[in-house]
Amino acid sequence: MIVHMLRFTFKETATEEDREHVLAVLRRTASVELVSFSTVGQCLGDPDGFTHAYCVGITDLPTLRRYMHDPVHLAGDPQVTPYLARIAIGPDLSDDMTPTLARDILALHEEKVALYPEWAAELGPLLAA
Hints:
The two termini are 27 Å apart. Strands 1, 2, 3, 4 and 5 form a five-stranded antiparallel beta sheet that branches. Helix content is 43%, strand content 25%. The chain is built from five helices and five strands; from the N terminus they run βαββααββαα. It is of the alpha+beta class.
């Protein structure tokens, strides 16, 4: 199982309606059949100041790849990013002890960046250092 997590903070200009819309879009993405379990909501006790989190459980690397390119996922990202001030990808975790798993997951991300440069351009400025 690969557990993928995002932590994020909304822009100050995001209204309560905007925030609810973003959370609804994220819950829709988290409900695709490729996801084994999920939670979307508040981020508890984050020392980096992130207020919300998105967490999905994906069974394996091939399923993660399909999830990353799922039409629901691809359609949701542009509805979410305009309202975010910052986002942190991970930390991810897994019970799969394959030594190259982290590198393999990064390669999937790099593949998505290459396929969808507009997505990468929207996401890049939001990434927390």
